[in-house]
Amino acid sequence: MSLNAEILSIGTELLLGEIVNTNAQYLSQQLADLGISVYYQTVVGDNRQRLLKTFGEAFERSNIVITTGGLGSTGDDLTKETGAEFFGKKLVMDEDLLAELKAHFKRSSFEFTKNNEKQALMPEGAQFLKNDHGTAPGCCISENGKMLILLPGPPVEMIPMFENYALPILRDKSDIKFFSKRIKILGVGESKAEMILKDLIDSQTNPTIAPYAASGELAIRVTASAVDEAEADKIMQPIVDEISKRLGSNIFSFDDSSIEEAIVELLKQRGYTVSIAESCTGGLVTGRLVNCPGVSDVLKEASITYSNEAKEKRLGVKAETLEAHGAVSKETAIEMAVGVKNTSGTNVGLSITGVAGPGGGTEEKPVGLVYLGLCINDKTYVKELRYNGDRAKIRNRTVSAALDFLRRGLIDEL
């Protein structure tokens, strides 16, 4: 049976742009792995008539509709009521669920008010989906070959509910299973990577190959259809090996781990420690590394040396260097890297200095000019970068570049 799903995100706050709809992206990825096609994603506000109309349109196109949002206790939370109305179902009070809700509120010291009772109402015959991280349960209504799955809006509640309770229902309905590997890359743009892999992409059957960019990185998604994961791995491995051969050290992950996780692992493997001196990035690079558990074994110290005085006092950058070349220069970047390494007593020192804008640029040193410095034991390296965009974009791109610069230095690929 061919399964098509539509993702319906409910909430006026989504239409107003007050929050970013990450739920649809997550659900699309999960459904693709199940072999369930998603041809439409829809956003609708908290309005009963529009929601009823949208349900009708969605079920004309798809046999599965998955909603997020509108399951709370307030008057504008209409998803469950409208879903029941669409299928001609009555809402009935689930006394066990009501008792559980009251106990939850008692444990949390919040008052259980009358309007919270609506969260214990369930459409007749619906399958209950437990909310392990909140008070709004979900449900699944199935009738005449159509399935409506109602999930809460907050991702911290939606994702566990989907993975623990909705996913098993969908998995049982899907005849075809899809399995994917994600190869993550820095240092090669999407267009160039596509040209390097063009013949593989043009001749793809099973597995398929799809490059896509996200958050300053590039990922190559290799997907195989198979009866189980072991068979999928056999199908995908030759293509993964060929991609690895062509892209080489530009690849930093085969298991969806982050660039910072790869760096921490490299530092541990070499028995190295690192210190960081940041100027224009203002601690963003260090913040990325600190995301990793166990980073305290390798990250010893970090400094935000924004002013020239701080660069001199904290890092030992020479006054004559700053006078002759300026704070944004390859000479200063090198002295910053050497200085933070030596004063911190680490094996590795990384530095970042640049013009993030919107002001401060000159013809000689325009906005977007960045220098990265790296000192590993007694070797020093420097890299010049030039970016376009606003302050946030320049800083974020610099963070990715600095992390990749450090990674390449640790694998001796500079």
Question: How does this model look, in words?
Answer:
It is a single chain. With 414 residues, the protein is an alpha/beta fold. The protein contains 15 helices and 17 strands. A six-stranded mixed beta sheet has the order 2-1-3-8-7-6, with helices on both faces. Strands 14-13-15-16-17 form a five-stranded mixed beta sheet, with helices on both faces. Strands 10-11-9-12 form a four-stranded antiparallel beta sheet. Helix 11 links the parallel strand 13 and strand 14. The longest helix has 20 residues. The radius of gyration is 26 Å and the shape is elongated. The two termini are 52 Å apart.
How would you briefly describe this protein structure?
The chain has 414 residues and is of the alpha/beta class. The protein is built from 15 helices and 17 strands.
Rg estimate, integer Å? 26 Å
Number of strands: 17
Beta content comes to: 25-35%
Give the number of helices.
15
* Sheet of most strands: 6 strands, mixed
Order of strands across the widest beta sheet? 2-1-3-8-7-6
Q: Which regions are unreliable across 5 or more consecutive residues at pLDDT < 50?
A: none
Residue share in helix: 40-55%
Counting helices, strands and paired strands, the structural category is: alpha/beta
Task: Set out the fold topology.
Layout: E1 4-10, H1 12-15, H2 22-33, E2 37-44, H3 48-61, E3 64-68, H4 79-86, E4 91-93, H5 95-108, E5 121-123, E6 127-129, E7 138-143, E8 146-151, H6 155-173, E9 177-185, H7 190-196, H8 198-202, E10 208-214, E11 217-226, H9 229-247, E12 251-253, H10 259-270, E13 274-278, H11 284-290, E14 299-304, H12 308-315, H13 319-325, H14 330-344, E15 348-354, E16 369-376, E17 379-386, H15 391-410
Parallel strand pairs: 1-2, 1-3, 3-8, 13-14, 13-15
Antiparallel strand pairs: 4-5, 6-7, 7-8, 9-11, 9-12, 10-11, 15-16, 16-17
Helix pairs in contact: 3-4, 10-15
